Amino acid sequence: MSLQQKIYDGLRLMRMTFLLSGLLLVACSSGNAITLRTKDTPLNQLSEVEAKLAFTCVHEKIPAPSSEADVLFKYARWLQKNNQIKQDKTTDLEIERLYRVAAENRHYKANVNLQNGSIRGQFNLSGDEYRRLSQQLIDENVATGYYLVAVFLENGSAGLQKDPDTSLRYFRKAADEGSAQAQGYVADKFEAANTALDIARQMRSCAAEQGNGEAARALGVDLKLSKDYQAALEALQLGVAAGDEFSAASLSKSFSGPKPENRMYYLEQQEDQERTDRYKKISKLLGVWSYANPKVPEINEIVPLPPAKLPAWDGKLKWVEEREANIPPPKPSEALIEQLAKAMVLDPKTGKPLPGSPVYSKED
Fold first, then answer.
1. pLDDT exceeds 70 at position 284
2. Where is the DUF6396 domain (predicted)?
3. For residue 337, what are the domain limits?
């Protein structure tokens, strides 16, 4: 081995060792408890480091809710969508109430929405509630639980001290358990350190498959620069499906006949004005609705990748049509809300635990 190669491998090992100090987390055999390796874990060989960083794609699994709790969740989500611009505080209180009751009745999407809304300042959770709700997700093997704890540790919020090192371990655990957000986050860390780039690519691919538009776009750019043009096309198409306006804009440019020296947009495609126009229109629609997290699951029916021929298209997106139709789901009755609240010893007026509830806290 040449001296230059030895130096290269040595520097690469140092970068990986640094990342391992934050991104290596091993699950214990005892349930969902986790054991963190210390910074000075011995790492003797490059192959050993790479093996410990190895990633297997897992998609997040969320247990199905009860039909009763789902009624509350769907109506709360509809209210929330309709309050994104108005941001009416009275409406926020009602959304929080419904999410709280649903979450305490083991509706895990309600749990996640409740926590995310509180992080944005829309709802009001205490530090104890954040930690308890996140642990509830972890206990049910919902990867977002680990992701949320990672965010709390990164920011020093939810009653936890700021701990960047432990935060990275939780991000890695969340990625391994299937969180698309964590997979994209960890991949970005690897890329920034210019190490484990093959693993970063695997994580982005896994996240893209789960609808993470930013990860799909980053994957597309990576593959494009590596001149894997077909794979780059497919990745950016996943980005459009996930609602990423920039993926659509990029594909619009890629079908406008760029020259090979145009590394930003060249994807080895013939000029196709109709494809360019369709992607451009989709990008504009996604930009207009970006605040509402739009999706284009039917993208392959609108602009299938070559060599498929383009079908007729009326210029509309299903997501936009449904959003504009704004058909409300069934409104839960007060009797149903009280029934679910009583089952978990909650105040039906607020959704918060009452004295006598095993999760009651004076802090709440």
1. yes
2. 247-354
3. 56-195+333-364
